[in-house]
TrEMBL record:
Compartment annotation: Membrane
Annotated transmembrane regions: 25-47, 59-81, 87-108, 115-132, 184-205, 225-250, 257-275, 281-300
Keywords: Membrane, Transmembrane, Transmembrane helix, Transport
Domain of life (superkingdom): Eukaryota
Protein name in the entry: Probable purine permease
Main location: membrane
Membrane topology: Multi-pass membrane protein
Amino acid sequence: MLVAFPASTLLSRLYYSNGGTSRWILSWVAVAGWPLTSLFLLPLYLRPNISPTPLSLKLSLSYIGLGFLSAADNLMFAWAFSYLPASTASLLSSTSLAFSAIFGYLLVKNKLNLSTINSIVIIMAGAVIIALDSSSDRPPGVSKGQYALGFLWDILGSALHGLIFALSELVFVKLMGRRSFHVVLEQQVMVSFFGFVFTTIGVVLNNDFKAMRKAARTFKNGEVSYIMVLLWGAITFQLGVLGGTAVLFLTSTVMAGVLNAVRVPLTSVAAVVVFHDPMSGFKILSLVLTVWGFGCYIYGNSPETKSS
């Protein structure tokens, strides 16, 4: 999670910075790497004590539903990255911790203590500060309305991301059980596959596959650069989501949201170095609040972790 998610964020922004324009293609890339997870899964079935989880109607519908939500989530973030700097988009994505905690509490009965609530409030305050500083980091050619739209899509995508975390843990608890780690790979393969199906339909209806060759020719540094950005984007997206699903299996929705917030300072600093994103005082303050909120969560929940 801490390596692949920041990398996929930077690659998404690189796609737009170097001339890419299609939100559907970037959404498609986010789930196109689903065969990678299957390469980890299939050899496990050769072991005598591991067998595929039987597909019941409820489990099949959960895969389809999560696949659709994942496709919608990827599209929201694609819109956000097209209008926001990578550092700003990353800071806003940290709000997924709040949504992960809320949905985890409502759906999976994850515990919420005062420290967790405090960290949620602090991180949300950081997002508000970013909104107040919108004039200083708007990319060239992006209007105030487009920036506001990107801000909105990022927050909505973060909310949906938190819901997906909670629903994924619910599937483990209610339908699959935490029997063996191979169920993590099974869920990821199936959810990414259905997300791939839904997104591919959108790409076809939008005629974006036909436009890919033209986009590759006009891409900065040429066609090879275009292909490499999409290829590594597919790999890092898949590994990041796989890591998130594994954290859900091993711990809880809230912990997955926390680690999702931890990547924020990593991505923000990397975006300043790689893309020379502006680092205003407001953004530094938001970054400090995000790290502070994460520290509050870790400190407040460490006794529970030790006892469990």
